[in-house]
């Protein structure tokens, strides 16, 4: 199974109602995404970092996840300064580096890191099962929630299938190269994964029908909304709105 390293803990955010965390995370992400002023964005980034500290998460693990995200953002830094129209501050051969392009790339960097940090602090501190349960309580469509849950649940299974097929290729002496045989082999590999995933999904669905599944998940333990959940949610929402108006 996929390890949920951040979901284990005893901090305030770990104990907070998942419904509150989902609402706050969505509100924060929406506001940060549409904000284009640096002052509130710096405040949002500090707020996100503060939530990481409150959650008592391992900084090294958080940084590793940020490195993955920022590796994609690096591509924006390579492209935007050269392609964004505006005042040219440096000319490199026939390409010009625009001041606006640098500002826009920096803006996207702050936004992306803020949203990721809040997602880690709020959503990763709950297990996937609790998050799915919370989404059902927030009245999201059952089919959409179930699709998201099963996609997450069987990523590990599909990855294990890929490892087994890839090992079978290595046993037969296959070595990846830049030629037609390699491309064709990987195409067969992807095709076999799709076929086996489809067969596995049918077996799982039939097993669920044998156990009485009728399109709805029933839960025995429900969330209890208490005073600390209410206060925590109000404080975080107030901070987000206050930063937006600052």
UniProtKB/TrEMBL annotation:
Keywords from the named record: Cell membrane, Membrane, Transmembrane, Transmembrane helix
GO terms, biological process: cobalt ion transport
Location relative to the cell: Cell membrane
Membrane topology: Multi-pass membrane protein
The UniProt record lists the keyword Thylakoid: no
Coiled coil: none
Predominant location: membrane
Positions of transmembrane segments: 20-35, 41-59, 66-84, 228-245
GO annotations of cellular component type: ATP-binding cassette (ABC) transporter complex
Claim: tRNA processing is one of the keywords in the record: no
One Pfam assignment: CbiQ
InterPro entries, per the entry: ABC/ECF_trnsptr_transmembrane, ECF_CbiQ, ECF_transporter_component
Name this protein carries in UniProt: Cobalt ECF transporter T component CbiQ
Organism: Candidatus Infernicultor aquiphilus
């Amino acid at each position: 199974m996929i390890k949920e390293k951040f979901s284990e803990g005893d901090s305030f955010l770990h104990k907070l109602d998942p419904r509150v965390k989902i609402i706050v995370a969505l509100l924060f992400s929406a506001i940060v995404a549409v904000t284009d002023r640096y002052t509130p964005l710096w405040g949002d980034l500090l707020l996100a970092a503060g939530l990481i500290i409150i959650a008592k998460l391992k900084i090294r693990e958080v940084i590793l996840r940020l490195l993955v995200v920022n590796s994609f953002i690096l591509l924006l830094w390579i492209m935007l300064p050269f392609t964004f129209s505006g005042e040219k501050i440096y000319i490199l051969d026939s390409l010009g580096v625009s001041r606006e392009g640098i500002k826009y790339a920096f803006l996207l960097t702050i936004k992306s890191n803020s949203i990721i940090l809040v997602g880690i602090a709020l959503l990763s501190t709950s297990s996937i099962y609790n998050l799915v349960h919370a989404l059902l309580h927030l009245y999201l469509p059952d089919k959409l929630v179930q699709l998201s849950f099963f996609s997450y649940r069987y990523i590990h299974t599909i990855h294990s299938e890929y490892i087994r097929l890839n090992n079978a290729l290595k046993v037969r002496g296959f070595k990846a190269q830049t030629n037609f045989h390699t491309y064709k082999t990987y195409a067969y590999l992807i095709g076999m994964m799709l076929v086996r995933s489809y067969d596995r999904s049918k077996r799982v669905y039939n097993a669920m029908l044998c156990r009485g599944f009728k399109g709805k998940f029933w839960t025995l333990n429900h969330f209890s909304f208490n005073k600390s959940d209410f206060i925590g949610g109000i404080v975080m929402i107030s901070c987000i709105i206050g930063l937006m108006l600052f």
